Each structure stands twice: as structure tokens, then as C-alpha cells.
């Protein structure tokens, strides 16, 4: 009877003991849940940060592309806004060997000036003469084709004249960027030749048309430095382009 009573009396103690253990177990469980939740929050935060960084990189890349497109549009608009006379370049810096300062009136038709396809093979001199005649008649496509025909043939001294004719024909078509390169190539082919001053002047003129004033002034400075006493027509044209480029 006493043992039964002692056992009965011991039950509250056990209940309290198991109650404490349950509380401890519950605390551990809640702590584990808290840690798991914190770890999950950290993972989500890192994922969000990675996503934000990726979006920022994409935004920077898109801004760079937009800036490039904007610059291209501005350059094209600047080139189109600078309109010069159809034969302004030829009037200012020569006519590809004709030595004339005036232009022939536009031809009513160009069919009569084009050589037949079945014609006999022409010499470089004949081709250049035909090309310069076409240039004077503002038939720039024919002049360009004749210049390229000579340039694609055997190397000769006449290729400098062909390169200069090519630059003039491109300028007449208002392809100023390609024309500037062609003029500079004509200069490089013979830096001390008779075409060199006119070629540098052509570089400056096309750069003015492209609204690249700083580069145009550099080309004019190079012209005056290397050819301090050019022909009168070149000196006169140099002053005109210096004013257009607002050179200091």
C-alpha cells in the first residue's frame, strides 16, 4: 500500500519533469524553424540582389547601344544638313586635270557620253579623260566607274589621278565620308606630287561637309605647313574652308 502511494505521489514530479522536457523540445524546434526561416530569407535576398545586378548590367548595355545609335543619327543629320553646291569641290580644288575653274552646264542626257560596252579596250589615259569629262557633266557614277577601272588595272603613275577622280566623284554624290578617305589616299600615294595640295584641300572640304571642324582645320594646317606657297586657286579655297570650319 505504501509503495503504491509513493508511486502515486511521484507522478507529479514526473509530469513536471516531462513538461520541462517538452518545453525544451518545443524551444529547440522553434529555434530550428527560426534558423531555417533566416536561411531561406538570406537565400531569397541573394537571389534578389543577383537579379538586380543583372538588370543593372542589361540597362547599362542598352544605354550604350542607345548612345551609339544616337551618335550615328546625329552624324547623319549633320552630314545632310551641310549642303554645298553640286560641284563646289571641283570649283574650289580643281577638275581632275582639266585645270579649269568653271563647270560645263548639266547635260540633258548622258547616254551619248557613255562608251559602248563592246568598244575597244581603252588606255588608262583614255579612261581618265572620259572620267573627267563625265565629272564636268555631273555624271558622277560614270566618273567613279572610270576611276575604279584605272585603279583596278596595272600600277602606274596615272593611278594617283584616278584616285583623285574617284574622290571627286564621291564628293559629287555627297558620299563625304568615303570621299574624305579617297582624297587622303590620293595624298598618301604621292605626298609630294602635284595632286597632294588639292587632295589635302579635298580632305578638309569633305570634313567641313561632315561638320567635323576640328579635323578639317588639322587638314588645312597640314596643307599650309607642307605647301606654304600653293597655287592661287588652292590658297583662295583654303581661306574659304578655314572660315567655314571656324579655324583659329
Automatic annotation (TrEMBL):
Transmembrane helix recorded as keyword: no
Signal sequence residues: 1-38
Keyword Signal assigned: yes
SUPFAM superfamilies (UniProt xref): TPR-like
Keyword entries, A-Z: Coiled coil, Signal
Domain of life: Bacteria
InterPro entries: TPR-like_helical_dom_sf
Coiled-coil blocks: 52-79
Protein name, per record: YbgF trimerisation domain-containing protein
Organism name: Komagataeibacter swingsii
Amino acid at each position: 500500500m505504501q509503495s503504491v502511494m509513493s508511486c502515486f505521489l511521484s507522478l507529479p514530479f514526473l509530469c513536471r519533469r516531462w513538461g520541462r522536457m517538452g518545453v525544451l523540445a518545443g524551444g529547440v524546434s522553434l529555434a530550428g524553424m527560426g534558423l531555417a526561416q533566416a536561411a531561406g530569407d538570406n537565400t531569397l535576398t541573394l537571389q534578389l540582389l543577383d537579379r538586380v545586378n543583372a538588370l543593372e548590367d542589361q540597362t547599362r548595355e542598352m544605354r550604350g547601344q542607345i548612345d551609339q545609335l544616337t551618335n550615328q543619327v546625329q552624324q547623319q543629320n549633320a552630314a545632310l544638313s551641310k549642303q554645298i553646291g553640286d560641284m563646289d569641290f571641283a570649283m574650289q580644288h580643281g577638275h581632275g586635270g582639266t585645270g579649269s575653274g568653271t563647270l560645263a552646264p548639266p547635260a540633258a542626257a548622258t547616254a551619248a557620253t557613255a562608251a559602248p560596252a563592246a568598244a575597244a579596250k581603252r588606255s588608262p589615259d583614255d579612261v581618265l579623260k572620259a572620267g573627267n569629262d563625265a565629272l564636268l557633266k555631273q555624271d558622277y557614277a560614270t566618273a567613279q566607274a572610270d576611276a575604279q577601272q584605272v585603279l583596278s588595272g596595272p600600277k602606274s603613275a596615272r593611278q594617283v589621278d584616278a584616285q583623285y577622280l574617284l574622290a571627286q566623284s564621291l564628293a559629287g554624290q555627297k558620299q563625304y565620308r568615303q570621299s574624305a578617305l579617297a582624297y587622303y589616299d590620293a595624298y598618301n600615294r604621292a605626298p609630294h606630287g602635284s595632286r597632294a595640295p588639292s587632295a589635302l584641300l579635298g580632305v578638309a572640304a569633305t570634313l567641313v561637309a561632315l561638320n567635323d571642324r576640328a579635323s578639317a582645320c588639322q587638314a588645312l594646317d597640314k596643307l599650309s605647313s607642307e605647301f606654304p606657297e600653293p597655287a592661287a586657286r588652292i590658297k583662295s579655297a583654303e581661306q574659304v574652308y578655314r572660315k567655314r570650319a571656324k579655324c583659329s
